[in-house]
Batch of 3 targets.
Target 1
Amino acid sequence: MLELRNVTKRYRAAGKAAVDSLDLTVEDGAIFGFLGPNGAGKSTTIRMIVTLLRADSGTIAFDGVGSTVDVAYKRLVGYCADEPLFYEKMTGLQHLSFIADIHRLDASTRKARIDELAGRLELGGALSDPIASYSHGMKQKLSIIAALLHQPRLLVLDEPMVGLDPKASFTLKTLLRQYAQKGNTVFFSTHVLEVAQELCTTLGIIDEGRLLYSGSFEQLRTLNGSQGQSLEDLFLSLTEEMP
Ligand SMILES: Nc1ncnc2c1ncn2[C@@H]1O[C@H](COP(=O)(O)OP(=O)(O)OP(=O)(O)O)[C@@H](O)[C@H]1O
Ligand SMILES: [Mg+2]
């Protein structure tokens, strides 16, 4: 279970909070979709969950392990960034081997996992090429494989569908569903409301750093007698009601 308690982050000491007193619980086996307008605070929240940023106040924990407990927490978490960065002179395989080294995966385990994931995402043929020669979507696939390599209990992805072709996007959705069905937790942000509606067991909607809603799509529809409305209608009305 992922737990965020009263998490606040300001980029400038005196400025408005990018994330403001966020309270959120995501259960094991959930696929949690994080929605919100541009600049709402999604990536900031995600970077705090994966320990790239430190919260000014509040706590984050997974399975009771606090995010400040460095290595023990990091072992539990896999992260696919919104704009992944690589050493572009490396080949895809060298990058994945480097990640596998960090997680101390043995030779047969890493080979089996790389073969399986690269096969499913159809990146196998390019793994011996330098990353500099990859398209945007190919880099995205590499980043997804790297995030999954150590089979993290919590998989965090920031807009993972961006740049993926329809087939890869379908494969990723299947992969995320299967991953969550094993009892892992998937936390991802997206602007594609159809994907959120189709894939997520739970949704969170954030705007101006504050969580407006957290729960299932069906629960959201029954709020304020809003049965029959699409997620787009609900999203727009929720995010436009902000003061
Ligand atoms: N490195 C930074 N320095 C200063 N302010 C930042 C920085 N990163 C983000 N912000 C500000 O924090 C707020 C939240 O940004 P964040 O990137 O978390 O939004 P987001 O929900 O991920 O948006 P998008 O949908 O566009 O990716 C915005 O007001 C943004 O301007
Ligand atoms: Mg973002």
Target 2
Amino acid sequence: MRVIIAGAGPAGFASAHWLSKLGHEVILLEKRSVPGGKVSAWQDPDGDWVESGLHVFFGAYHNLLGFLGEVGLEDSFDWKPAEMTFAQPGGGYASIEFVQGLPAPLNGLFGVAKSKLMTFSEKLAMGRGLMKPIFGSQAYIDAQADITYRDWHLANGMGQSTIDKVMDAMALALNFQKADQVSAKLVLTALLHFAKETDAPKMGLVKGSPHERLWVPLIKHLRDRGVDIRFDAKVDTIMHDSASNRVTGIQLADGQTLTADAYVSAMPVHSLRKVMSDSMREHAVLDNLKHLRGIPVITVQLYYDRVVTNIDNLIFSAGTHISVYADLATVSPDYHKGTGSIIELVVAPAEKLFPLSDEEILALVIKEFTGLHPEAIGATLIKSHVVRIPNSVYAARPGVERYRPDQATPIPNFFLTGDYTQQEFMASIEGSIRSARRVVDRVVAAEQAGTITVPSLL
Ligand SMILES: Cc1cc2nc3c(=O)[nH]c(=O)nc-3n(C[C@H](O)[C@H](O)[C@H](O)COP(=O)(O)OP(=O)(O)OC[C@H]3O[C@@H](n4cnc5c(N)ncnc54)[C@H](O)[C@@H]3O)c2cc1C
């Protein structure tokens, strides 16, 4: 069977891997000249890597780690201790360290108890309040999809102060929006994984650029197996015949038309909506994709002439726009240059910052960064990059969970994969790989059921 997959992000690559492994002929189309989607990287004129975003991988990412293991890339990460280190105004750090040697959830609960980030009464309230998700079930977590994390937190006896100190930063790191906007389900899903599995909170950063460490070797692996991977191949329209209710082809922006037996969209939801034929929207599940809105985020890189942090891990901050960042020159071996820092920051909430110029965004980020790291005040900023992502992951707001589509659609030869589709995880790299596993199952089931091709009239 020939399958066209549109979108060479993590979900598109993983689907291409599994479908080609099953012996199918796979064409993978990517509109950009670089692979990896939201996990992409490209070089600036000096040859330094600009990344679409700072990416952290968790011990809980079993599907991703399994997939990378299958293609020989299991050694791509530098693993860091499980801890949340918060930079403090004026300098210094306070952290929550998962206690090594203790099983989950004790490692986390003792970590909170030992932390200097919170007062005794805040810790007590957190310990009590988090019992429900920790000892609860997925069904309990699913039932919290229609309220904000803030409302859930307050309703469970925890105060606004722990949102301000810890949970806003966590919500921003997970979904680029604060606790008063993000759905409780999203934050609780992450907490549940950390509470159930001792190694889940272990954090890994790619040893260098995702381009060199992940995508280039993966592309070689897939091409060696016969996968036809095409860059600068932008899908313009997914052609649909309403009489037979089948996708009949993919029209590319350069005018070419490609056909296959099955079609898989691995594009982000906002891109898919742009290229669907109008008749596809007659299916409610596809029309409802309009409720899944991409959230804006900005990535900033600051190159300093000297080392301005000494933390070999992620750094969080509370009450700023730089909720999470890392010094790539410290955390990633390929970036070790021995001279200065390369600070990569996730800037969120970013919606109100988008109208600002790059210079204005940099001024804000540098002010907040030097407020936390006074060492940077005397350092020279050699260069910087600002990357704007207007539609990143879908905004996991209360009430939108029900619009996440299954990977099989009402159009029998058209399938969906990507972090926004239904899977047990939040929108994340692990979520995108889980969705890829599910889409492959759906394609195989449809092929076996004989529903992909139009029944012959003869
Ligand atoms: C700043 C930032 C930081 C993040 N940090 C983390 C993190 O620390 N940990 C984590 O797990 N997740 C993180 N994420 C989320 C993670 O990047 C995404 O969940 C993941 O990349 C989704 O993968 P995907 O394959 O579903 O979609 P994408 O990565 O969006 O890939 C979709 C692909 O489709 C292509 N495409 C779009 N339109 C077309 C078209 N018309 N024709 C052909 N191709 C098209 C795109 O160019 C892209 O390559 C972060 C995201 C951002 C933006």
Target 3
Amino acid sequence: MALPRPHLTEIPDSGLSLACGVQPDELELGPDDGRSHGELSLSVEIAKAGTGLSVTGVLTGTFLRQCVRCLTEYEDAVSLPFAVEYRPEDVPPRGRHKSPGAEARDLPEGEEEVYPFDGDRLELAGMLREQVILATPMQPLCDEDCLGLCPVCGENLNERQCGCPGEGRESPFVVLKAKAGRQRKG
Ligand SMILES: [Zn+2]
Ligand SMILES: [Zn+2]
């Protein structure tokens, strides 16, 4: 099932609620944006707000990420709530964000993000894609306490203690101590 693109005339004054599955392809996510594991699900409330629409909802799904410490792939179940506004393109949004390339993210915190209509239709894909990208961690960790890989033999220390001499892991401190020692002498 494709992501709904309701025509503006199809949205009653009382608003519209939608719930549907979303295929990752529909959001055109790049490999670094978060690889979705299977279908995402979307629930969205559309309400009229002046000449525009207020769109709130939540996108849930499972993403595959690679831990930066141990390089293991893990599944990250996420729930992304959003609250945005859609406006006709000829009405400039509040503030000075008229150019099409302007990042909606420049808006001060607390301000709703504004998206243009696609002609006479409500286009959710681009907005949802942004939500996913924003929620993608820069430094994904399989676990906050992930022990990472042994710098000596490369063993995943979450799975097994390899028994390598601890020197490798403590090296930054060893270097500091050595420097301090030298300074004291010199
Ligand atoms: Zn890890
Ligand atoms: Zn080791």
